[in-house]
Amino acid sequence: MDETDTTLVRLLEENSRIPTVELAAMLTLPAAEVEERIRALQAAGVIRRFTAIVDRARTDHEGVAAILELKVSPERDHGYDRLAERIARFDEVRSVRLITGTYDLHVLVTGKDMQEIARFVSEHIAPMERIRETATHIIMKSYKENGTLLLSRDAGGERQPFSF
Amino acid sequence: MRDHVSRAARAIPPSGIRRFFDLVQTMDGVISLGVGEPDFSTPWKAIDACMYALEQGQTSYTSNRGMPALRERITDDLARDFGLSYDPETEVIVTSGVSEGLDIAIRAVTDPGDEVLVAEPSYVSYSPCVTLAGGVPIAVPCIARDRFRLDPDRLMERVTPRSKALVINFPNNPTGAVMTASDLKGIADVVEDHDLVLLSDEVYGELSYEALHVPAATIGALRERTITLNGFSKAYAMTGWRVGYLCAPIELADAALKIHQYVMLCAPHMGQVAALAALRSAQAEKQAMVEEYRLRRNLIVAGLNRAGLACHVPEGAFYAFPSVEGTGLSDVEFAERLLAEEHVAVVPGSVFGAGGAGHLRCAYAVSREDLSEAVRRIERFVAGLGEQAAPTLETGQTAD
Lengths: 164, 400
Prior knowledge:
The complex is a heterodimer. Chain A is 32% helix and 21% strand.
């Protein structure tokens, strides 16, 4: 990845729907090269997919999300990887991270309601071998997701249409 | 009743964009490229520091010169970035924006009848400030062929025995032009040969996209005769806080300080707190804004050139300055019709001095979405002008 790729990734990460012609203008590249670079970044696994950040509180299908913290006994030769990958394969699981501190794995889980999450955790996660302890935190409100503020739109102050 | 208004106040021109303002008020959906201020909010670290200071009751006057910690930080940064040495105790004044800094700097050096050279196109306040100080503003044109840099020969042509000072602003509002070290060397020779004071407004210095900004005071012996003006409004998106500063050798700083303490007392305390926090901890946020401006610049320059408005690549500030030559319209006509027909607001270049005629100032400190839409509308507008002209051409061809 060169400097142009780094800028391209940053721009797409912020807004994946920027038209190619605009990317081309900003990066002072031909449009075809921009498309080629995006394809190459996808092929290399740098860009995994294009998606949208949704403020669930503003949808009719809000659902519930919870953070699970897991204490895990690592396996000889594999450490935390095999267990973490098993957990990651569940559709209910949105993210899995190995962390420092009191707990080892930090897992984000979503579900229809609290019961669904409770059932999923108690039936599928908690009984797994090597998991010594779990702590489940229901998310009450989200203020920022993936670098995007979810606050009520700030007024931002009116700018005059002209100034020198 | 006699005329209560002073001759000086009568002599300064009213705002050149008043009628545009009035027109915009009557319209919906206007995209304005007319605003010379960042669309970003001030970095949160500066706002947060200010809120904390307010809670602590930091609401008093500060020293006339400004908070000592802010002055020290300013001089430390100038030493670190440019090797410029100023004494924070005696050679720095924190001002209420660069606007105040300019006013007190001009008044500190201008006697009645003195000529003050102003490189144009320029920010609109320079000449009126000279007039209000009793001086005579003398425009020195910077032209498109020179990529709007100030040419030493053109400067020489305007110098007379009455010349006292020269006002420059690079990176430039409205053209986006920058001066390299060697460009400035040519100017320095003229300034020194004619014993002028240099007033250098460098508020856009940190918005330099191709090379590191070169402060005029770093060139030759200019530091000893230069008042450098700078501020936080543009680089840190802090227009409403009203904080700037000037750096000058002690005798010029002392003179400016006397005026500053009578007219302003001190710059706003809370603004100074926020400015200090911005210098200390919002460097990454500033860099991100600079990078965003650079991308937007590329976007608007490509769009304007596609529309058929020749536009040099501005190397600094956040203005594109395309030419409307070839559209058959003057800059004022173009701007008025563009606003009326496509609801895009730009500023006619002639507002910034005669040298700006035939150009438009398009500020790209607006969101990319708005910028792209504005460019689409400009393209459509220019294409429409071509179609209006086309029937004549076709008639001519069929007659052959």
